[in-house]
Write a structure and sequence with these properties.
This protein is α+β, with helices and mostly antiparallel strands. Helices cover 20% and strands 27% of the residues.
């Protein structure tokens, strides 16, 4: 091959290499700088945020943090009133105190602290009161405290209450021992005391009092349990919202227990409560100068027998079946009740034997002689 041909081949080969190098360079530039069109396209991060592409956010760090749900705090209920209270108060036994109600011993002290107030005849046409209080430790002076009668034990046992009294009839003492009632007797415990003001103004038997602190100390001294039984059957069931029973009008409830004691309770449309009167005057608590008032009135008809002895003591049948009235919000209806035995809580029913539900608030319970049923007036002219 001559030198001319070799020269041509070499030049041609070099030219091909230059062309190849230029092509490689152009492709490299295109790869690093993509063509920009006139229409703006979203970048990768915008697309990922819009479509929530979790492949680029495997821990969901871009998701909004959900607000944690806070469970509602439990609401604890006073079993005597249906109203809110602390957990401790809701689970403890109430205290029941025998209260003097003779006219010459008035005014009483601390009685407006009752969540439930029982009234029943004693001897001679007088009545005694049993005030039942759930938060007894908060009470101030309470009194004057009087002696026990055996059927008042049955009222206290409706609530498995700690029972405070000052003496008692022979039968009451016998039953306290036989039934092992958790009782606190003012004749033998120093937590009770003679009130100085009462000593100046009343006969000695009308002067004994106790305080809420004294009740707490007496319970500790006697070593009695304050916790309510877990299986305790509360006699009260409460309406969700207060309402009038589906009955007739009851604007002023007159309850003539005897010739001596003829209390009445007048309905107040403003407060939706019944304010209590006795001895033709407002029933006042000396502690706060307030008239006693109740959301509910329950009348239980029971057989009364006596006098049984020279002291005029009577017997009241609290057990078995009976009837009565439920009164609230200006209306009343007939009800039924059943108490299996003295130490079993009472059960309250509507006339058709469905469970009675009462309104939330304080309750006055009159254990009234069956023989005097017709003397009750629901709209007494007072």
């Amino acid at each position: 091959m001559n030198k001319k041909i070799i020269t041509v081949i070499s030049i041609t080969f070099i030219a091909l290499l230059l062309v190849l190098a230029v092509a490689v360079a152009v492709l490299s530039v295109k790869k690093d700088n993509p063509t920009i069109s006139n229409t703006e396209e979203p970048n990768d991060s915008t697309t990922q945020n819009k479509d929530h592409d979790n492949t680029s956010d495997p821990d969901n760090t871009l998701q909004p943090t959900p607000t944690p749900t806070v469970p509602a705090a439990p609401v604890y209920i006073n079993p005597l009133t249906g109203l809110p209270c602390s957990e401790e108060i809701s689970k403890q036994r109430p205290a029941a105190v025998m209260i003097n109600n003779i006219h010459t011993a008035l005014p009483q002290e601390g009685i407006s602290g009752a969540d439930v107030l029982y009234e029943c005849l004693a001897e001679g046409g007088i009545t005694r009161l049993l005030m039942v209080t759930q938060d007894y430790a908060s009470l101030g002076v309470v009194g004057s405290v009087r002696s026990s009668r055996e059927y008042y034990l049955d009222f206290a046992q409706n609530h498995n209450a700690l029972y405070f009294h000052a003496g008692g009839s022979n039968k009451a003492y016998t039953e306290i021992a036989q039934r092992k009632i958790d009782n606190f007797d003012g004749l033998y415990l120093s937590m009770f005391y003679r009130d100085p003001w009462r000593l100046q103004n009343f006969a000695l038997e009308h002067t004994l009092v106790i305080t809420g602190e004294g009740m707490v100390n007496a319970i500790k001294y006697r070593g009695k349990t304050t916790q309510q039984k877990e299986d305790f059957a509360n006699p009260f069931s409460f309406n969700t919202e207060n309402k009038a029973p589906n009955g007739n009008a009851a604007k002023c409830v007159y309850l003539p227990f005897s010739y001596y004691q003829t209390p009445y309770l007048k309905y107040d449309e403003t407060t939706k409560t019944y304010k209590r009167w006795q001895y033709n005057e407002p029933h006042i608590d000396k502690t706060n100068n307030k008239q006693l008032e109740f959301t509910n009135i329950i009348v239980l008809f029971a057989s009364h027998t006596g006098a049984l002895d020279s002291s005029g003591h009577i017997d009241v049948t609290t057990t078995g079946s009976g009837d009565g009235y439920y009164i609230s919000n200006g209306k009343y209806v007939s009800i039924k009740y059943y108490k299996a035995d003295e130490d079993t809580p009472i059960k309250l029913f509507n006339a058709d034997y469905s469970d009675l539900q009462i309104n939330k608030g304080k309750t006055y319970i009159a254990v009234f002689p069956t023989a005097n049923k017709s003397s009750i007036n629901m709209n007494y002219n007072k």
